[in-house]
């Protein structure tokens, strides 16, 4: 079975043909974890998990707020933005903990927002504290803030951590590996050397496949979707000199170990 550990099926780019996208997942035996990022998308994620429960699993998150606004303003992130009450949203996630398999995505983003670093850290700390209480895996966004995110995670009691689309230096990759953190690899691994190096360095027991759909497509300019994790499996098999079926089995076992056992 294929696993897309991180995607955004609530996205407007799926509004016209989501049923077909889900059916392609179903035919390919692909599980897709759709991740919320704010109040509106968290609610949508839960609705999708209920509607397509045989295919879609859910994680509820809290994206760095000002970074999300800038992404939307840039035109590259066409979602609605609304004022988020951090504490209220975290309480919403807590109330729905039995309907989700993870918290995230959440973290720090110093690419889109360098003016609210301390505020971002305060909010991420609140997310970490929630995760410690409800004991769910945490899907971490850490763009241009990898070191700071790692330092905060190391100061916590969170054990099951997934570094989503990690772009930090190799010394930080090794630090995460040593800490027992996991990494998810997007389909752009087929054309981005940095992710190839990441695959080479990270043990197969700490690797996941993701798409971050509709972004990070293996084919530039095309919308991404969950079944494209097959490109990740193919590339990992080449880089690690493993049979594709073995890679697929290992990723699914990682999924069972880290996420499914914590979904009850």
Explain this structure to me?
- The chain has 264 residues and is α/β, with parallel strands linked by helices.
- The chain has one domain (2-262): Alpha-Beta Barrel (TIM Barrel), CATH 3.20.20.
- The protein contains 10 helices and 8 strands.
- Strand 7, helix 8 and strand 8 (207-209) form a beta-alpha-beta unit.
- The two termini are 21 Å apart.
- The mean pLDDT is 93.
CATH architecture: Alpha-Beta Barrel
Largest sheet: 8 strands, parallel
Helical amount: 40-55%
> CATH homologous superfamily?
Metal-dependent hydrolases
Global Rg: 17 Å
Number of alpha- plus pi-helical segments: 10
Low-confidence stretches: none
CATH topology: TIM Barrel
Mean pLDDT: 93
In terms of DSSP E residues, the strand content is 15-25%
Strand neighbour order, sheet with most strands:
1-2-3-4-5-6-7-8
């Amino acid at each position: 079975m294929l696993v897309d550990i991180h995607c955004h099926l609530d996205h407007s780019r799926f509004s016209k043909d989501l049923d077909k996208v889900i059916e392609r997942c179903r035919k390919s035996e692909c599980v897709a974890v759709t991740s919320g990022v704010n109040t509106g998308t968290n609610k949508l994620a839960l609705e999708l998990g209920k509607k397509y429960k045989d295919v879609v699993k859910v994680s509820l998150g809290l994206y760095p707020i000002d970074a999300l606004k800038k992404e939307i303003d840039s035109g590259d992130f066409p979602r609605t933005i609304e004022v988020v009450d951090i504490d209220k949203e975290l309480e919403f996630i807590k109330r729905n903990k039995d309907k989700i398999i993870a918290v995230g995505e959440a973290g720090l983003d110093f690419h889109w927002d360098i003016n609210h670093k301390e505020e971002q850290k305060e909010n991420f700390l609140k997310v970490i504290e929630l995760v410690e209480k409800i004991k769910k895996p945490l899907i971490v966004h850490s763009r241009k803030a990898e070191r700071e995110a790692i330092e905060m995670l190391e100061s916590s009691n969170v054990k099951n951590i997934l570094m989503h689309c990690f772009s930090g230096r190799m010394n930080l990759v090794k630090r995460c590996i040593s800490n027992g953190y996991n990494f998810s690899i997007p389909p752009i691994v087929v054309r981005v050397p940095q992710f190839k190096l990441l695959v080479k360095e990270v043990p197969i027991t700490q690797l996941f496949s993701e798409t971050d759909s509709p972004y990070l497509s293996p084919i530039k300019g095309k919308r991404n979707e969950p079944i494209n994790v097959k490109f990740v499996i193919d590339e990992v098999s080449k880089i690690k000199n493993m049979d594709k079926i073995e890679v697929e089995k290992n990723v699914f076992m990682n999924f069972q170990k880290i996420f499914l056992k914590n979904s009850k």
